[in-house]
Design goal:
Blueprint lengths: L3 E5 L4 H4 L2 H12 L4 E4 H4 L7 H10 L2 E7 L7 H10 L17 E7 L22 H10 L2 E8 L10 H26 L1
Parallel strand pairs: 1-2, 1-3, 3-4, 4-5
This protein binds flavin mononucleotide.
The site of flavin mononucleotide has 18 residues, from helix 2.
């Protein structure tokens, strides 16, 4: 089995997450041998242990970034992790090859529903547009971009209504299933 590293970029998974928490719980049950890197619990002060994070990445064959979309991007927790850890001379630059050949899979959720993410809609662009940065990050660092698993419509507003909670619950379980299937496919 290939080494799978799942990095959670939520800023407060225990107290403020519905979707990412549920997805990660399901995935952890299905893939107990994967490594899980919960950034918020390790680095509540945003002080990243760069050497430790680089080591985790070096050991991985498949890197999964799991996060909610905040302002059309990854949350600050994950951005800080990447800014500190992906150093010139380590991940990129003429001597930086640490991530070369590793598979990169993105797994993310949005509050806005999938049908809002269309050209000319309220969200203006398809969700794939938000993934272009990850494709380029993979390109620059020599990783193989393996696309994304996405679930929309998991909003804060929906947490108050029992019907919406049931729908979000089902959507997150479904997301976890799709994510596990994709990881297993990549790990073959
Ligand atoms: C600071 C902040 C910014 C957000 N920005 C967006 C956004 O740009 N687009 C969107 O569809 N949802 C946005 N959302 C909604 C989150 O994506 C949504 O709540 C999250 O995916 C649900 O996952 P969780 O239950 O694990 O927190 C934002 C939420 C917060 C708190």
């Amino acid at each position: 089995m290939k080494n799978v590293l799942i990095v959670s970029g939520h800023t407060n998974l225990q107290d403020d997450s519905f979707a990412n928490k549920l997805i990660l719980e399901d995935v952890a049950k299905a893939l107990p041998n994967a490594s899980y890197d919960y950034l918020d619990s390790q680095y509540p002060d945003f002080k990243i242990d760069v050497a430790a994070e680089q080591k985790k990445l070096e050991t991985a064959d498949i890197i999964v970034l799991q996060f909610p979309i905040f302002w059309y991007s990854m949350p600050s927790m994950m951005a800080k992790w990447m800014e500190d850890t992906f150093q010139h001379g380590w991940s990129h630059g003429t001597t930086g090859h640490a991530l070369q050949g590793k598979k990169l899979l993105i797994s993310f959720t949005t509050g806005a529903s999938a049908d809002m993410y269309v050209e000319g809609g309220i969200q203006m662009f398809p969700v794939a547009t938000m993934m272009t940065r990850f494709e380029q990050i993979a390109n620059l660092t020599g990783m193989v971009y393996e696309g994304y698993v996405f679930t929309g419509g998991v909003s804060y507003a929906g947490r108050k209504d029992s019907e919406q909670v049931a729908a979000m619950n089902a959507a997150c379980h479904n997301h976890a299933k799709r994510l596990v299937a994709r990881i297993e496919e990549l790990a073959k």
